[in-house]
Design brief:
With 399 residues, the protein is mainly alpha-helical. The protein is built from 15 helices and 4 strands. Keywords: Membrane, Transmembrane, Transmembrane helix.
């Protein structure tokens, strides 16, 4: 087996695994959505194509190679089905008939021997796919924007850009047309597309973080592949491209799997905000007891003003009048280190090995002192503490 065939197989198998993970993620997000079902159908066809090709090229099976033309010919139909779901409108009847008939004819034709006419068949299949994508792009571009929500219009714009980006990757799969391509990159383009689609489903800040993480993965994996290429005895430009493509495809696939597993584990282990939302507690004391079951609040202790007598409550009251949550790492909180109020607050936190103080009430003082584990001290936890403080402050005391 040549190095080119090995690289083609690995990239396509990574694409199949990555798309399967993306399908599970989309299904978990919204299993009952009509668009989800359409998207799963289209991604399933593409995943089968990549799996079939990867196994065919790895094993040298001519039967699997011939079978791969069926999902390849059905990709335009899948793209049209997704486009209809996005627009919530039917495509013109002629377009649907052309996509269905073309997929059946090219799929069966390739299966029963049209591949003997290698160049004409490859050109026909490539033109059929490109024409289908162009038609879908035209339907999206000429959509009735007023019938869709602003978020849907933004998503369509992102998908249009993604479609333009992925077309060059798709063309590399037609080695008959481009015999000098070192490695087929269609699966890599699909991995990039589904990664961006999953990132686009979050809020603005989440999208920025996701894109930054994706850029880091691409750059680091590209450099890793470049470095690995020089371990081979005979290194040329084509070999470098193969190593880089394999490294990027592998890292993107691993990234999709780890992101999906992280989301699954987080959903199975409710966070502190989920615990509060699901709590049947009616009073502040009951809610604090409920929170104590969560790892972040295991060390939490409540101090009322009568229990703070040794820390000068009037002084603390003035100090905390404009503060809601204090972190030990921020000491002395814009005051002098020898300021009496700062000294007393540091003393309180030190005596209880605390990292945070949550102010429930100022007059009389009502504080929660807790130690957040270093492994849990992140911006999300800080936000959760601030929200928990607000909820506790609004929860009535027992009568």
């Amino acid at each position: 087996m040549t190095s080119g065939a090995i690289a083609d197989s690995i990239v396509n198998l990574c694409g199949a695994i990555g798309l399967a993970v993306a399908m599970l993620t989309f299904y978990r997000r919204d299993p009952r959505s009509p668009l989800t079902r359409r998207l799963l159908l289209a991604l399933g066809v593409i995943a089968i194509l990549f799996l079939d090709r990867g196994l065919a090229w790895w094993t040298g099976s001519r039967l699997l190679d011939r079978l791969s033309v069926i999902p390849a010919a059905l990709i335009p139909l899948g793209a049209l089905i997704v486009t209809e779901g996005i627009l919530r409108r039917h495509a013109p009847r002629a377009v649907k008939i052309a996509a269905l008939a073309g997929g059946i004819l090219l799929g069966l034709g390739g299966l029963f021997g049209l591949q003997r006419f290698v160049m004409p068949y490859a050109i026909t299949l490539a033109l059929f796919q490109l024409l289908a994508f162009a038609t879908c792009a035209l339907l999206l571009a000429t959509r009735d924007r007023s019938s869709l929500m602003a978020s849907e219009n933004r998503s369509i714009g992102r998908m249009a850009v993604g479609a333009l980006v992925v077309i060059p990757f798709i063309l590399t799969d037609f080695r008959t047309l481009f015999p000098d391509i070192p490695v087929r990159l269609g699966a890599l383009g699909a991995l990039l597309t589904v990664t961006v689609m999953l990132i686009a489903g979050g809020g603005a800040e989440t999208r920025r973080h996701g894109l930054a993480m994706m850029a880091l993965r691409l750059i680091s994996s590209g450099l890793l592949g470049l470095a690995a290429a020089f371990m081979a005895p005979d290194v040329d430009a084509a070999q470098v491209v193969r190593f880089v493509a394999v490294a990027i495809a592998g890292v993107l696939t691993i990234g999709l799997m780890t992101d999906a597993l992280r989301a699954l584990f987080e959903s199975q282990e409710p966070g502190v905000l989920n615990s509060v939302a699901a709590s049947p507690a009616q009073t502040r004391e009951q809610l604090i007891a409920e929170l104590a079951r969560h790892p972040i609040f295991e060390s939490a202790q409540r101090f009322r003003e009568s229990e703070l007598a040794s820390y000068d409550p009037p002084l603390l009251r003035d100090f905390l009048s404009a503060r809601r949550v204090l972190r030990r790492s921020d000491a002395p909180w814009a005051l002098s280190p020898i300021d009496p109020a700062a000294e007393r607050m540091v003393s309180l936190m030190t005596a209880n090995s605390a990292s945070h103080v949550i102010v429930l009430a100022h007059d009389p003082l009502d504080l929660i002192v807790l130690a957040v584990p270093v492994t849990a001290a992140d911006p999300a936890t800080e936000t959760a503490l601030a929200l928990v403080r607000r909820l506790l402050a609004l929860t009535p005391e027992a009568k």
